[in-house]
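Board notes, transcribed. Complex of a protein with zinc ion.
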Amino acid sequence: MTNYLSAILGMILLLAAPAMAEDTISRDVERDYNYLESLYTYLHQHPELSFHEERTAARIGDELRPLGFEVTQNVGGAGLVAVLKNGDGPTVMLRTDLDALPVREQTNVDYASAVTTMDDLGNQVSVMHACGHDVHMTVFVGTARRLVAMRDQWSGTLVMIGQPAEERGAGARAMLDDGLYERFPLPDYNVALHTSAGMPAGTIGWRAGYALANVDSVDITIHGIGGHGAYPHATRDPVMLAAQIITSLQTLVSRNVSPLEAGVVTVGSIHGGAKHNIISDRVDLQITVRSYTDEVRATLLEGIERIAVNTGRAMGFPEDKLPEVAIRDEHTPATYNDPALANRLAGIFRETFGEADVVETAPVMGGEDFSEYGRTDQKIPGFMFWLGGVAPQKIAQAEESGTALPSLHSPFFAPLPEPTIRRGVEAMTLAALELFGKK
Ligand code: ZN
Ligand code: ZN
């Protein structure tokens, strides 16, 4: 009888244990929230452009050092790597980005950014955390504080990185090139989150497999033989050629890519000509190209070159005046969420936060260079999930009035700090504990 009772008691305790740990996390995050919100306000009011995140990184370093992390600054620019060794076990890497955007904030929140600075081209620009990276950093510090406070409940090595220049798609590569995986413990898993400008504050969106796209930028320089607008036969008109190329490029996705695969070719900029009656000698096109798989990416990039050059030939442009196609090297690879890892962590989120707050989301054609951490030879599984950041009443208003919510990068994007930050810290802490294997 006693054995029977104690077995039942044991079972009850066993069943209650995970719930208790999660209740504790949620309570402790709530207790820590004022501290985190003041950090968030500071970060929001002190945004820095890509590859100029020195002060931001210093502040994050100052938060982590007293917690016992070994902090290395200036990894791949202003990047920061903070390592906490806590016994045997897996190595888990959590990543935040650090940079802000050249956007003039128009949100009307009382902690709005008033920062202006000189950009790399020498222009005076306003700066704003319009992509929520200040939310990411606050969640990152909050997670560090929780995991340190709970260090008797997990063992392993925690690697926390603050990455520069996400907005330029270059910071992850810069950190890897600066020895992230050689100079510091090699992770078994990589986890990150991104604020969502479409989901209610405190909800979570996730997806296994491709979640964000390959992003490529292509420049086409179309040369011509200029002359009088009334004598076109004596010229080679680059405006006409540009028009043909732009239209033909749209056949790439519709005719060269399988209908079951995704791709986008957008000509975002066209510049050429000076006056009504002059045939110009040059037109410049700027194109963004999006895809998920390496194969579709190659099809699109090769196709752009093929169409540009051969349309020039078809229109009788001389061989030394054919369009020049340059693929920019700031390529961001597609974000692929390791399916096993994604399902495992989403399962924990669902169990803890409830089905309604954890939804599977469709992949998007935006890009994120978090993908780089999973594309090295080590093939480390990674998972990036969405953290909803929009006040529910704003979503209701938008639905009622039929207007769109401000997107990421909009001067009007104002995430609701609470509960967004709290839920972010809870989710990241749970994810890390799960991967370490809670004691
Ligand atoms: Zn962004
Ligand atoms: Zn971002």
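The chain has ten helices and 18 strands. Residues 47 and 100 are 5 Å apart (CA to CA).
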